[in-house]
Specification:
Blueprint lengths: L1 H8 L37 H4 L13 H45 L24
Length: about 130
């Protein structure tokens, strides 16, 4: 049962605490009263790493579904954060876009210095070039 659990979850040795666990339960402590003495962290090694395998546990080619399960579990845990980040990002993008468009619209009002030098042909008749 433990071998099946190891193969399914593949825990890293760092999961087992190196310090601050109850007496005798740290990673480098010996598991007593079991003989021969093994350190607690050594129990995270699968049978393959120790040089033997159980015939009934031999795995067929891992399916795509089994490959995706850990990633789907992680996505299920963080989806509220992803949705929240998308909403906040959309709000910030909308505000920045509105600010940029408002600045452009404000600049679009053409001041008198930028008015064209030539006017429409029908206005030429009413222009007086004499100074007073």
């Amino acid at each position: 049962i433990f071998e099946r659990w190891l193969r399914r979850h593949r825990p890293m040795l760092e999961v087992y605490p190196a310090a601050n666990a109850p007496i005798g339960h740290n990673r480098e402590n010996y598991m007593v009263p079991f003989i021969p003495l093994y350190r607690n962290g050594e129990f995270f090694k699968s049978s393959r790493e120790l040089g033997y395998d159980y015939e009934y546990l031999q795995e067929s080619a891992e399916s795509f579904h089994d490959f995706l399960i850990p990633y789907l579990e992680q996505a299920r845990q963080i989806w509220p954060w992803l949705v929240g980040a998308a909403v906040i990002g959309g709000i910030i993008t909308g505000l920045l876009t509105g600010l940029i468009l408002a600045c452009r619209k404000k600049r679009r009002g053409t001041p008198s210095e930028i008015q064209p030098l030539l006017t429409e042909s029908e206005d030429y008749n009413n222009i007086s070039y004499q100074s007073n």
